[in-house]
Write a structure and sequence with these properties.
Chain lengths: 312, 312
């Protein structure tokens, strides 16, 4: 019925119209109820259109506490603060992910690494579909290691590339590898860069982002529990990455781009760099400075949302 | 210096003696301080031998709340309850992982997926090394999807296999793929099976565990946001897995086995099955039943620890 042939390597987004979320899954129509297990939410127990139908912007990031901080920040920016200034965790029935909402903005944590964000995205895309959301834009706001950039620089991803610098994501389906495109929205990238210029508070570049399956050996660190290569080999690899256009390294962007692309959702990746990997491996900057760095992607995406809503 | 040649595909454990943790990384000797960033711990700020030197058993699992519940359970079993019955999170400075300790037992969460557990294991293995621990056994206690087993059955992993049923883990190092062995300790597996017989409370089998990079397409589910195969193709894949000896599917065991193996640490994987994947994809069992299922690996490993300490 759906053979795993070349025709599926770069499928078109499974939607008739760019404005609605469409699911690339004909089986879901047959299900009476859909349990989003890792969110502890389900269509049989929750009214998705009532809870989420007005969502226009989704921001996702690794850390649950950072995503809670983001919802408080964006609420203040949009003048939508709650009276008690508290934002309940919509996924309180589980500790796998945390989710917060204020007005048209949803903020969701995704943990670390491709498998963790992929589980979250499967359930998030279904949530937005069940809620009948339209014109949704999704941002990943995160941290990363930079290459050849001062720490604290923000990178807006042009292309998410794999560990061999190719703009693709290898998805294993029923034991077979299929290749998916990691295209991101070019216009959205440019609009975010314009926002950064208007804010004028931190250095921002558009560059390629390398997405790896490992933080230590996969990113050429010398300080993991296992390291069987030399410092020269590490630096050669990072310089090759730089020469190919890579400006930062993280662990989620490729599957994020691939899944948003397939579901016809506009998406962008905005990460701050915590260190320059050409200078070292350990993140030894003070806690206070790191906290300030981590606010930069929030500020940039927050400004974009305000501007989109005509509030700048 | 350390060329990425075939000789490293199945390296021997990097240790002179099975009793101590040894690091396969000559670079670490040159570092004055080691910051375990994702634990918010460092050798410059924490006395690792004093804090962790007596650790003999480490239990790791995905969910932070489950790992907190485990430390309370094992404390009670070993008669080491704290006066206020509270166990502080040793990694309170971060929300990436949670860590608890009582007597010789350390309990650590690892999130979901290979990259997430790999970051934790790099830092855990370095922690145990810096603390000069000896004779350590590490258990992964988790949840999984079963194949051909009644829900609630416990699987002790014989071999962790990949999505093509091979007992290996593909690690990408500086952009190149190296193959690592996923050997687990056969004697430990048998001892755990004997413990389950002595407990006599739930069905336990020894079987192969398939470790995938994805929960939906990677495990042949029909209920993700993306699914381009038929129900027949799904069932054919799961039956092939069963015929090859696979009895459950999860997302962390392969890198867990590979890293413990390389570091010369005895390791076992004990997971409960939440559903039979030949019967369906959604986890629709009641919360109360799932909570009881999730205690089974804790009970089994807890009994093993008690027995090892001569308290049974």
């Amino acid at each position: 019925m759906f053979p795993l042939t070349k025709q599926f390597e770069f499928p078109e987004p499974c939607c008739d119209c760019k404005n609605f979320i469409h699911l690339c899954n004909p089986h879901l129509e047959k299900m009476k109820e859909d349990i989003l297990y890792h969110f502890a939410l389900g269509t049989g127990t929750h009214d998705f259109p009532a809870l989420f139908g007005d969502v226009k912007f989704v921001c996702v990031g690794g850390s649950p506490s950072r995503m809670k901080a983001f919802i408080a920040y964006i609420a203040e920016e949009l003048g939508l603060e709650s009276s008690g200034c508290d934002y309940p965790n919509i996924c309180a029935g589980t500790d796998r992910y945390a989710m917060y909402k204020v007005g048209p903005v949803l903020s969701v944590s995704h943990g670390m690494g491709i498998p963790s964000i992929a589980i979250m995205l499967h359930e998030l895309i279904k949530l937005l579909y069940h809620a009948k959301c339209s014109n949704v834009t999704i941002f990943r706001i995160g941290t990363s290691g930079g290459i050849g950039l001062d720490p604290g620089s923000v990178v807006i991803t042009r292309e998410s590339v794999d560990a061999t610098f190719k703009p693709q994501f290898e998805q294993v389906v029923l034991g077979k590898t299929v290749i998916r495109s990691t295209n991101l929205d070019e216009q959205l990238t440019k609009e975010l860069m314009q926002c950064s210029i208007e804010i004028g508070q931190f250095h921002t570049v558009i560059g390629n982002t390398m997405c790896t399956l490992d933080f230590y050996e996969g990113q050429g660190r010398l300080d993991g529990a296992i390291c069987l290569y030399s410092e020269e080999e590490k630096l050669q690899y990072l310089k090759e990455a730089y020469d190919s256009g890579v400006r930062n390294i993280e662990m989620e962007s490729s599957v994020f781009a691939a899944m948003c692309n397939l579901s016809g959702v506009k998406a962008a990746v905005v990460c701050v760099t915590l260190l320059d990997r050409l200078e070292g491996d350990q993140i030894s900057t003070s806690h206070e400075v790191l906290v300030e760095y981590q606010k930069r992607p929030q500020k940039l995406v927050g400004y974009f949302i305000k501007k989109s809503l005509g509030k700048v």
